[in-house]
Design brief:
With 104 residues, this protein is mostly helical. Helix content is 82%, strand content 0%. Helix 1 (2-10) runs antiparallel to helix 2, helix 2 (16-28) packs parallel to helix 4 (50-62) and helix 4 (50-62) runs antiparallel to helix 5. It starts with a helix and ends with a helix.
Length: 104
Amino acid sequence: MIAGLEKLLAEGKDSPELRFGLGNAYLNAGQPVSAAEHLEACLEQKPGYSAAWKLLGRAYQQQDLPELALKTYRKGISAAEEAGDLQAVKEMEVFARRLEKALG
């Protein structure tokens, strides 16, 4: 799956959806650094993409970057609130609270 998506990107078919798909695929493959790169690119193109904020936070957590993950979830909550994506708001609030508790 990753190879096919990377091929589309190499062909110049860049889009937020393609970057999200790549980020998700890399995250599922246990490659959070590559996932974060694509999710960051996705959010540069479409800053209000709630699901991308959520996955980017998870990618940072998997890289053991809890402060960056928390900052990402907070930005994601704002973006999701603006978009009216209440489910994403709730999920990221839970993730953020867990991180805040873990960080003390």
